[in-house]
Amino acid sequence: MEHSDPIIALLGMGTAVPANRIDQADTAQRLAEALKETPDSARWAKRIFKQCGVETRYTCEPNLLQSASDCRYFPRNSLDDVPTTADRMEIYKRESVPLGLEAAKKALLDGDVDVSAITHLITVSCTGQFLPGMDTVLVTQLGLAATVNRLPLNFIGCAAGLKAICLSKQIVSGNSSAKVLIVCVELCTLHIQPSSVRESLFATSFFGDGASACIVGTPGPNHKAIFQLGREHTVLLPDSANEMIWELGDYGFDLYLSPSIPKLIGKMIPVEVERMFGEEGNPDLWAIHPGGRGIVDILQERFELTDEQVRPSLNVLRNYGNVSSATILFVLHEIRQELTRVGSRPTSGIALAFGPGLTAEMIKINYLPSAIIHKELLSGAIV
């Protein structure tokens, strides 16, 4: 990792999920019942639900736990009772703020950062929008200063959480006293489509709802184990614009995910990682955004990663699904918990996330135990 002065790091993290827990096997069965008039689609749906690597997810919409006949989001003969995009945005407006508020409070507590120290607020979401936005509501409900610099990142997709971290690092690089609060909220299940088309059923199979937050700044003597942030790298992969499409529809947002995405990532990302690490070789820690089981699998194969190295990403996918932009912080939180539990030494790594474009966001990370932080701060040494 490059030398930097001062150390810029993720000082605290927090996650939150709605109360409604979706069991994957149960949902697959209920969806198959809704698709009984199209048995080929029903069989395909049950197979993809079983193979996508998800066991449980969470949703802000309790109707998604109802029987097939009562669920307004499942395929049906008439669209009269299907929630419109306006209906879904009303739910988003009501449910997004409490989740973001919970994650933000956890991050502030975890990072031992007072709200008065926050200079910038970055809010991230691609699954809903309203104005005045979530950023303005969080300022009031968290008690942030009215002068806090607000930067909403909307409709950028799954890579936006890591993009916010990279942007925050740049902000703190220019002002070492800055403290940036990032809040990502995604209510993906609101966009489940009442369709028997395979592309819609695939998207239905593994997205979940949740929120994550973090504080980016320079550490002090009271901070716990942190991830130091190093060089960031972003790239728009060539000839891949149509592989991931997210558009506004009458019944929520319409998502198309090409089955070629894992193959493209496996082909193009090794070159980009090589540009970041060069002769350093591959790092030990891999915080991979689990955009799908296939993405994690192809990166494990290309970089010859152990099961232990990809376990945090697969654990998050299994327990929460893909929570879009919020997911990368779920993965980093899981990695930090494991490293702290085993008393790990300082360890280098990389965080990667992917989104429409196809876009790849990456940043070098370095895990620093609390004892190392205190030692470096006292000595003035640079990691």
What's a concise summary of this model?
With 383 residues, this protein is an alpha+beta fold.
Description:
With 383 residues, this protein is α+β, with helices and mostly antiparallel strands. It is built from eleven helices and 13 strands. The longest helix has 26 residues. It is globular and about 65 Å long. The chain starts with 8 loop residues before the first strand and ends with a helix. The mean pLDDT is 90.
Task: Give the topology.
Elements: E1 9-16, E2 20-23, H1 24-34, H2 39-51, E3 56-59, H3 85-110, E4 120-125, H4 134-142, E5 149-154, H5 160-174, E6 180-187, H6 198-204, E7 209-217, E8 226-236, E9 244-249, E10 252-257, H7 261-277, E11 285-288, H8 293-303, H9 307-320, H10 327-341, E12 347-355, E13 359-368, H11 370-379
Parallel strand pairs: 4-5, 4-6, 11-12
Antiparallel strand pairs: 1-7, 1-8, 2-3, 6-7, 8-13, 9-10, 12-13
Helix pairs in contact: 1-2, 3-4, 7-8, 9-10
Protein name: Type III polyketide synthase
Keywords: Transferase
InterPro entries: Chalcone/stilbene_synt_C, Chalcone/stilbene_synt_N, Polyketide_synthase_type-III, Thiolase-like
State the shape: globular
Order of helices and strands: EEHHEHEHEHEHEEEEHEHHHEEH
Question: What's the CATH superfamily of the domain at 226-379, by name?
Answer: Thiolase/Chalcone synthase
Low-confidence stretches: none
Give me the Rg, rounded: 21 Å
